[in-house]
Amino acid sequence: MTAAGNNKQSSLVGVFIRGLAMGAADVVPGVSGGTIALITGIYDRLLSALAGANLPTLRLLLRGQFGAVWRQLDGAFLLSLLLGIATAVLTLAGLIHWLITHYPLPLWSFFFGLVLASAVFLLDEELPSCRPLEWSLVAVGAGLALTLGLAPAGQFITGSMGFFLAGALAICAMILPGISGSFILLLIGMYEPVIAAVNGRELPTLLIFVAGCSVGLLSFTHLLHWILERARRRLMALLAGFLFGSLIILWPWQEVLSVVMDRHGEPRPVQTSPVSPFWYAENIDDSQLLLCLVSAMVGLLLVALAHRAGGGDDTRRGASGRDEHVQPGLRPEAGTGSDRARSETSSGEAG
Fold first, then answer.
1. Inter-axis angle of helices 43-51 and 203-230, to 10 degrees?
2. pTM (predicted TM-score)
3. Which residue in 72, 6, 17, 25 sits closest to 42, CA to CA?
4. What angle, rounded to 10 degrees, do the helices at 191-199 and 159-175 form?
């Protein structure tokens, strides 16, 4: 095999590993794969691949030019990523569920450290000399994430249009770092109706929801990709703000203010308020402070070490569609959701 072939194979293995990380994050309620795509350096390539699903690509498909369609969609990248996600979901779901059930606070502490370090490195790499406008966008992104994360659940449009719009909003949230789709469904009061439709196998309703997801994914992805090519620094400033804003939602010690019932009849937190570990220990349960600090440090060090390691196998597609070699690793180039579906309710459960 040639050196180019070895490099390409190594790159796809790296994408598969990133898919594993995204899948593992998706198993954790409240952590979206979009955040992991951002902090592992494949966010812009993922946007580019998804933005390839357009009318010219559809025309190529209808003409039977499958090879051109595969290249236009960056098929090898997407396939490797999806295989990694599926593998993680199938193999790690049990472990992640066990950690959420028995060690929720250390798990959230790990993600807190991971996202904090990622946001810092994102600013350092993408915006080494941040301008006033870019700092403003960081603040706007953080403010939006905070507003969404701390907002109470509300009411939404009912009927078919409600399911369509809910799907579009949820999928858009999954693309942005700091916000997860299920969290948005909780906020707009559509989590229970969607789950009820899934449990009741209401196919027409689910098809409407999926249609909304499809429209939202394609339209919002194209918008983000368009912005990325024309105003990368400003978009990265906004995304960094989302990461910083999501930290208050990833904060391990939270008081549950309101809940909804999930499909298993278990209470699912929909609004929480961050509290100090000392207040948590006095009023809810053991704060596991030392273990949480260690977990957060592991997340911080993981990002820092991978960032320093550099030099590897990741590539991203530029505006021209060609692969451009970039630094790999758990570095912030281009997200985590906040649907804090903790195992603890207002009585708290820390282990």
1. 120
2. 0.66
3. 17
4. 110
